[in-house]
Specification:
single chain
């Protein structure tokens, strides 16, 4: 915590740094902080070997509302592939039309995050996939009911057997999560203007966008928002210099402290990944800010003590717009047909 605070506070003085002399110098500085998104989806390692059968199964599960107790909600409900991986709401609506406590983060490029959820309570996408299914405010289901639903449909029985060959009992809640993880790992957005610039194309970004990138580095934004995902790789307090008001930082949500119960981690959250940020409003874990210019101004003041002028904010937003990459094209899969043995949806009350 002390290191995080010191880093952020030192960066408040960086506004006085000289401009980069040319594109090569700016690119060199950027490459010290960021990496382009690869054109191919990353492998998950021996813990979850990715195959076409497993990815296709994960897509079916991701889009299937029968994985919820009511038969109404699917992963796609809150993480819409066609809406940059979000639902466009302050907080998502789940079982019984309840509103969730936090804004739904995008799952696009989530494979590059250090952990999942705003508080990092899930170490990977497989563990994350289990959470919403069981959360009473989201899908309100149980692992046993999910497995019973899957085993009741021959289409899923065959799909799990193909995805997990050699397994004595392919259909399990763990394998359900591994399949979804494999599918979500393919949902990356490469070839943004920023990626093209990082890879050597000087003309990929215009003058305002490059000025915004320089400002992003100079002011210290890159101290927290770095790496492939331009964020998502560390935990930081919200309000290092100036604590935002309760309308933006709800007092009851203490963030990572609820996970670690460690003194000093109150109101600490995983730094938001900024890839596709122009497409994923509203912003922050509270979902209370809809304008990207306002979000930039709030972060500059609260995290860095920097009071950016209108031109600087416009340049910063211009840079953030270059982080939108090629969106994944996913056809809605044909879902297995239910049978008389498939558990019936439960009422939404």
């Amino acid at each position: 915590m002390r290191r995080t605070l010191a880093t952020a506070l030192v960066c408040t003085s960086a506004l006085s740094l000289p401009a980069f002399a040319d594109d090569a110098a700016l690119r060199a500085a950027a490459k010290e902080n960021f990496e382009p998104i690869p054109m191919q989806a990353p492998q998950l390692g021996d813990s979850n070997v990715m195959t076409r059968d497993k990815i296709d199964l994960g897509a079916m599960l991701f889009f299937d509302p029968r994985m919820s107790k009511s038969g109404v909600f699917s992963c796609q409900t809150c993480h819409n592939v066609g809406l940059a991986g979000v639902d466009g709401l302050e907080t998502s609506i789940g079982h019984g039309w309840q509103k969730g406590p936090r804004n739904a983060p995008t799952m696009l490029n989530a494979v590059f995050n250090i952990a999942q959820f705003w508080d990092g309570r899930a170490p990977d996408l497989a563990e994350q996939a289990k959470g919403p299914v069981q959360a009473g405010v989201e899908m309100n289901n149980t692992p046993d009911n999910v497995v019973a639903t899957l085993k009741s449909m021959p289409g899923y029985v065959d799909a799990f057997a193909a995805a997990f060959p050699g397994a004595n009992d392919p259909i399990s809640f763990d394998n359900f999560a591994l399949a979804i993880e494999a599918f979500e790992a393919t949902l990356i957005t490469p070839n943004s203007k920023f990626d093209q610039f990082l890879m050597g194309n000087d003309g990929a970004m215009n003058a305002d966008e490059k000025a915004g990138l320089q400002l992003f580095i100079d002011t210290g934004c890159a101290a927290c928002h770095s790496g492939i995902n331009v964020g998502g790789n560390g935990y930081y307090p919200f309000g290092v210099v100036e604590t935002p008001g309760a309308e933006i930082l709800p007092e009851g949500d203490t963030g990572r402290f609820k996970v670690t119960e460690t003194a000093g981690e109150e109101y600490v959250f995983r730094a938001a990944p900024l890839r596709n940020i122009a497409l994923t409003a509203p912003y922050f874990h509270s979902g209370k800010v809809w304008d990207l210019k306002q979000a930039v101004s709030i972060m500059a003041k609260s995290q860095l003590g920097a009071d950016l002028d209108e031109t600087q904010i416009d340049q910063m937003v211009a840079f953030l717009n270059t982080l939108s990459g090629e969106q994944p094209h996913v056809e809605h899969p044909i879902l297995p047909v239910r049978t008389d043995a498939t558990p019936k949806p439960a009422p939404m009350n």
